[in-house]
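I am writing to request your help with a piece of structural work I have in hand. I set the record out below, with my sincere thanks for your time.
___
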Amino acid sequence: MLTHANLLANVKAMGKAARATTEDVFVSWLPLYHDMGLIGGCFATMYLGFPVVLMSPLAFLSRPSQWLRAIHRHGGTISGGPNFSYELCLRRIPDEELEGLDLASWRFAFNGAEPVSADTLAAFEQRFSRWNFRKNVISPVYGLAEASVGLAFTPPGEPWQVDLIDRDWLSRTGEAVPARPSDPRRSSWWAAEPRFPTTICGWSTPPVSSFPTAAKVNCSSAARRRPAATTAIPRRRRDCSTANG
């Protein structure tokens, strides 16, 4: 069960992580029966005091360009969705539907609620730069219902990067170490630049030793030789430390 205190703590923490102000405009196609749409899109805007523009999820799915048009029309500064929504824009919007589009107002394009593809992030940023979508606006995020909704954000405007992690070693020991370049089955997960802390939305940030073992990252072990099978895990930043009531 989520209490009012849980929700308020998470909403305040997400606002801090997104650097939200009363000058922002949230544009959302996210369904209100989903925590990202209800808590992130509606509760947060009501509490933090900036407008939200709601559109039908079916309108977005039937014609993804309507999402981008809504951002243009209303001067949206914050908007986003799962990785598939960015893929839909890449695959199903012809250039002719984008004539006159201007995405310069969009400063925080969050991507979460399902696995985030680094290829999708890069492709969306590259294609829509023609319509003033700026570099480092797209932001991988992570959340779960047990934390109300938001847990880890890449701060707006900050770069993200990809880490390649040894999958077998991680599954056996819970320790994330870099994979060797020659490993044949490595995969990529997004990560924040290492000089920035992870944004944890909803709790005071605990020391690393208090996280579950599988979440620990020890990059000092990079020189060790590991089995070939690899995966990659994201490093996220810690700079949002609102105690969860």
